[in-house]
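Researcher: Here's a chain I'd like modeled. Treat it as a single chain, no partners, no ligands.
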Amino acid sequence: MENAASRDSSNNTQNTQDHIKTLEGTEAVKKLKDLATSAENCFFCTNIKTGLPLSVRPMSVLQVDDAGNLWFMSHNDSNKNGEIAQDPFTHLFFQEHKNSGFLNIYGITEIVTDQAKIDELWNPLLKVWFQGGKDDAKISLLKVVPTNVYYWDTKHGEAIAFIKMAASIIIGKTMDDSVEGNLEF
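Model: Modeled as a single isolated chain. Structure tokens:
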């Protein structure tokens, strides 16, 4: 299942097959966890099907569980939660580094009020947004269940990719170190 729109936007001049790698199962979940948790923020988009324009806000993922679901914390009376209640389809965009570590996630979001899960995900920095601590009555969780995930990354890490880019400029030959593909759970 290849994402043609994502593939067509690539500027790779080499054989595209050398750069396409679909990851499945635990390997896909590991890549999702690595990229999503190392990115400081994501753009969390709601109101996709029911509203124009869609709503976008920065958010930080608290956890990517072993099934590949992404967990966020939100105020239960926020516009975001209201939009999700009307239209659960969400789109998330993550960027780990300037030139690598991109995720494009389309999924369905559930609003969860499970206190045990809130306790599990709570960290003291969240008190900035929830003054009542982990027992704040306004806390809800957003569980994003991905239905389509596409990634772009480097094959050998940021340092090797930089060296290859510099060498490519010097010798005038394409030495792209990128890899991209679907993540299937």
